[in-house]
Amino acid sequence: MAQISPEVSKLLEQALALSVEEQEALAESLISSLGGKVDDAVTAAWDEEIKRRIAALDSGEAKTVSWTEVRQRNLAKLPRAQ
Fold first, then answer.
1. How many CB atoms lie under 10 A from the CB of residue 70?
2. Residue 37 lies in a domain
3. Helix, strand counts (H, E) of the chain
4. pLDDT tops 80 at residue 73
5. Which domain does 54 fall in, by range?
6. Count of domains observed in the chain
7. d(Cα 82, Cα 28) in Å, to the nearest integer?
8. Residue 52: inside a domain, yes or no?
9. Which pLDDT belongs to residue 19?
10. What is the pLDDT of residue 64?
11. Are 81 and 4 in contact (CB under 8 A)?
12. Which residues contact 54 (CB under 8 A, 6 or more apart)?
């Protein structure tokens, strides 16, 4: 995995502070700016994975973690910008 520069780390920290809707819009914009064609096989594989994960949640098989805990864990992993 590529190293994250302090500038990118700061941007990520700011992005994580956005609302879910704003994060979704930002992610969509970044992905669409990559200019790559969407692979139908990849899309189909993600659709199946999403169905599998929903079923695991519905059945109680999957263990969930609160957004607050996930955010704290991820922020703790980021290098601090100087």
1. 12
2. yes
3. 4, 0
4. yes
5. 6-77
6. 1
7. 29
8. yes
9. 92
10. 93
11. no
12. none
